[in-house]
Amino acid sequence: MCLLIVEIVMLIVGLIGLIGGKLSLRGFPLEGKRARIAGLIMALPLPLALGMGLLLGVLIGTGALPSSAISAASGIELVITLGCLGGAFLYAYLTRPPAGSSTPPTLPPSGPPTINPQ
Questions:
Q1: DSSP state of 38
Q2: Higher model confidence: residue 103 or residue 58?
Q3: What range defines the domain where residue 66 resides?
Q4: Percent above pLDDT 90 for the chain
Q5: Would residue 51 count as lying in a domain?
Q6: Of 8, 57, 80, 94, which has the fewest Cβ atoms less than 10 A away?
């Protein structure tokens, strides 16, 4: 039950990062693309755990796995949750701007190039 609450909180934080484009993970402020990618990683545990539970139920129901395999579900769910949480923090740490710069690097403008008439 506690793991489900953690997954729901991670989903909410991830959706805030995906939709808003701003996220702060323990001292790592993220904006734009970086926040959206970290938000996606944070939102993954609940859908992955749901899919894992469905797959495990189908495999047990068809007889491909013994019914005792259901006891491994909590451990797998814990690994998924901690892996996604650690992955989001690792991504935020590895993509942080250099220590000397106060502003994040800017990307070139997107869209077709413009031609200046002479």
A1: H
A2: 58
A3: 2-94
A4: 45
A5: yes
A6: 94
